[in-house]
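Exercise 7. Given the encoded structure of a 259-residue chain, write a plausible sequence.
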């Protein structure tokens, strides 16, 4: 318990985005991802590993007896008076279960656009984009590059009192008071497309989609942008230019992209 608490508090203090707990042949390796780069923090005896994984599973409300299948969960903790959300992913490997914990610190998204590290001219263009009454704004980049943080920071600039701001996410990463946030649930058929269709009947001004993954979600998002809504979303591409190719690849008609 002390080791897990130490890991979490240390990760928050160091500004880590992810904690990796990896069982090796003779030891357990702990690494933090800080500013996109993994750093080894600690080598521990392998016999500690089962107890640490069990502790994390209990905290995340997972099945501690299931060691053969991947599991995902969520933990809410308080570190130094700050509420931190942790997303837990457990994957069986040849030496045991590997645990990756994504650290979601709401302080990082509430710090404002100025803290994102954009050049001043890019910042001015971005501010202009999120102030538009309609259109679609796609934030692209590789995993861990700050796409979600950028979108949440953009939402924080908007007037939640005068605008109906809604989000569809999988999962809801940061809880915002001024938004209506929908968590998708594939098990019961509540996917991005179904959530979006329902949202459009809720008189939205701004819609944030966690990620555009398939043709139907992309098509509804583009149509929403063309019918007077501001749509913000992320796309998994390495750069902005590739997003056009990605949308074509998903199956969006060229005339819709041109619009």
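Solution.
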């Amino acid at each position: 318990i002390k080791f897990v608490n130490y890991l979490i508090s240390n990760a928050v203090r160091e500004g880590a985005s992810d904690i990796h707990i990896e069982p090796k042949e003779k030891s357990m390796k702990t690494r933090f991802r800080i500013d996109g780069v993994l750093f080894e923090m600690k080598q521990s005896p392998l016999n500690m590993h089962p107890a640490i994984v069990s502790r994390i599973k209990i905290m995340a409300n997972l099945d501690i007896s299931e060691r053969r299948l991947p599991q995902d969960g969520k933990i809410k903790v308080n570190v130094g008076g700050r509420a931190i959300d942790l997303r837990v992913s457990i994957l069986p490997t040849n030496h045991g279960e590997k645990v990756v914990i994504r650290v979601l610190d709401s302080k990082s998204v509430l710090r404002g656009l100025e803290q994102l590290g954009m050049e001043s001219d890019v910042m001015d263009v971005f501010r202009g984009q999120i102030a538009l009454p309609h259109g679609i704004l796609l934030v692209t980049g590789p995993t861990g590059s700050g796409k979600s943080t950028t979108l949440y920071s953009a939402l924080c600039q908007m007037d939640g009192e005068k605008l109906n701001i809604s989000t569809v996410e999988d999962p809801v990463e940061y809880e915002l008071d001024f938004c209506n946030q929908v968590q998708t649930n594939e098990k019961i058929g509540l996917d991005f497309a179904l959530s979006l269709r329902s949202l459009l009947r809720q008189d939205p001004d701004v819609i944030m989609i966690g990620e555009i993954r398939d043709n139907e979600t992309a098509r509804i998002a583009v149509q929403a942008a063309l019918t007077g809504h501001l749509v913000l979303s992320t796309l998994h591409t390495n750069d902005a230019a590739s997003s056009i190719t990605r949308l074509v690849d998903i199956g969006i008609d060229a005339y819709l992209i041109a619009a």
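Remark. DSSP finds nine helices and eleven strands in the chain. Students should compare their own answers with the one above.
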